[in-house]
Amino acid sequence: MNRLELFNQNKSLLFAIAYRMLGSVTDAEDVMQEAWIRWQRSESSVQCPKAYLSSTVTRLCIDHLRSARVQREYYIGTWLPEPLRTETLAAPQNCPELAESVSFAFLVLLECLSPTERAVFLLHEVFDYNYDEIAQTIGKSLSNCRQIVCRARQHLSLRRPTVSQANYAQDTLIEQFLTCWNQGDVQGLIALMAEDVTFWADGGGKVVAAQKPLHGCCKVARFLVAIRRSQLTPNIAPQLGEINGQFGIINILEQKSHSIFSFYFSGDRIQAIFAVVNPDKLRAFQLQT
């Protein structure tokens, strides 16, 4: 097998690692391009191409996250991950761990981890790498890697809300949400949301969006209805779609994707709504609408 064939053989895995690490399709593709360049320049005697490539991608992602954290200090408003269409996912549908790890809420949750914690946690907990492989990848001892995974689990458990219901129940809730939203039914929306629901919006300073999270079902419901009645988006057309492995809403305006709504659930209520409005993060959707 030549180098291109070996790279393509591992391409799905490399993208899966890079996207979960970075929360950005664009950045993940850039990292893969750099990994391809390094792979071409590498020695022909590489014993295990998969290990070499995944290690290269992981290290590139760690470096990128360290610089991205500085950039996000100057980001206008809330930073949210870049949405990904379900059909482009590398994760097999019969693997719950991979499916959950690409959900929007999980990617947001990972933001509480440092770049190294994120890498070690994902490689071990999601991609089933053993500690020997991880230690070689990030240049740390076995005991240190074990400690990092333990620390990451603790950080995530403190922030992870109550486990949500099965997908079919979530899908029904989102369908009901869309119906109430279309009808401007404030009370109907309130009934679907947890009392302490949070609405997060990412406009990146490029379009009008709430720069601070909104808390509370009454405030969020009224805000959502106000969006539908706004003169800025009089012809917005919401439609259901699969986003990051889960049901969500794609809002179309003038035949273009205006925003993406992703959801997180607690029991039988909507616990969080993530609205990506930044046009730079909707490019992949513009090509398919």
TrEMBL record:
GO term, biological process aspect, one: DNA-templated transcription initiation
Domain named RNA polymerase sigma-70 region: residues: 6-69
Family matches, as CDD domains: Sigma70_r4
Domain RNA polymerase sigma factor 70 region 4 type: 105-156
Domain of life per record: Bacteria
InterPro entries noted in UniProt: ECF_Sigma-70_Domain, NTF2-like_dom_sf, RNA_pol_sigma-70_dom, RNA_pol_sigma-70_ECF, RNA_pol_sigma70_r2, RNA_pol_sigma70_r4_t2, RNA_pol_sigma_r2, RNA_pol_sigma_r3/r4-like
SUPFAM superfamilies noted in UniProt: NTF2-like, Sigma2 domain of RNA polymerase sigma factors, Sigma3 and sigma4 domains of RNA polymerase sigma factors
Span of the signal peptide: none
One GO MF term: sigma factor activity
PANTHER family recorded: ECF RNA POLYMERASE SIGMA FACTOR SIGJ, SIGMA 19 FACTOR
Subunit comment: Interacts transiently with the RNA polymerase catalytic core formed by RpoA, RpoB, RpoC and RpoZ (2 alpha, 1 beta, 1 beta' and 1 omega subunit) to form the RNA polymerase holoenzyme that can initiate transcription.
Name of the protein this chain belongs to: RNA polymerase sigma-70 factor
Species this chain originates from: Aliterella atlantica CENA595
Taxonomic lineage from the root: Bacteria, Bacillati, Cyanobacteriota, Cyanophyceae, Chroococcidiopsidales
